Amino acid sequence: MSRTHALILALALPVLAVPAARAQYVGPSDVAAADSVAAILADPVDDRDVTLTGVILRKLGDEMYIFSDGTGEIRVEIDDEDFPASPIDESTRITLRGEIDKTLMADPEVDVDVIELVR
Q1: Which of 6, 30, 57, 93 has its CA 20 to 30 A from that of 84?
Q2: pLDDT (tens digit, 9 = 90+) per residue, 71-118?
Q3: What would the pLDDT profile of 22-77 be if each residue is shown by its tens digit?
Q4: What is the CA 63 to chain-centroid distance, rounded?
Q5: Would residue 54 count as lying in a domain?
Q6: 39 near 51, Cβ under 8 Å?
Q7: Are 86 and 55 in contact (CB under 8 A)?
Q8: Considering the entire predicted model, what is its pTM?
Q9: 11 within domain boundaries
Q10: CB-based contacts of 115: which residues, under 8 Å, 6+ apart?
């Protein structure tokens, strides 16, 4: 093997040894891992990311629902395509991830991005 080939091989081996999957950061974060409806209603911060676990109590209209986590009730907007394949009713525990939508003339609500069934 020539010196050039040996040098190329020596430089390439560390690159090839890097694992295909990368670990993700799992330490502390400034983003709250979980919230409560009561805390959101007491201090709604527009566009703040939130995570809520509870149930949908009822449908208000097109993509609008009332959600409760046991600490209070809040309107949530959920796009039809964001619902899981499994049916959800008022007894199905779910986790919602989204952001607070606060306006001057209305109560705060949550614009939901992700719904997960709680197992």
Answers
A1: 30
A2: 999 999 999 999 999 999 999 999 999 999 998 889 999 999 999 999
A3: 666 656 555 544 589 999 999 999 999 999 999 999 999 999 999 999 999 999 99
A4: 18
A5: yes
A6: no
A7: no
A8: 0.71
A9: no
A10: 78, 82, 83, 84, 88, 94, 95, 96
Mapping DSSP to helix (H, G, I), strand (E, B) and coil, where does residue 12 land? helix
Overall residue count recorded for the chain in this entry? 119
Helix (H, G, I), strand (E, B), or coil: what is residue 33? coil
Q: Name the residue range of residue 76's domain.
A: 37-117
At residue 7, the 3 state secondary structure works out as helix
Q: What is the domain count for the chain?
A: 1
Asked if residue 13 is part of any domain, the answer here is no
Predicted confidence at residue 4, as pLDDT, reads: 74
CATH of the domain at 90: 2.40.50.200
**pLDDT grade for 2, boundaries at 50, 70 and 90:** confident
State the residue for tokens 């081996």.
Answer: 13
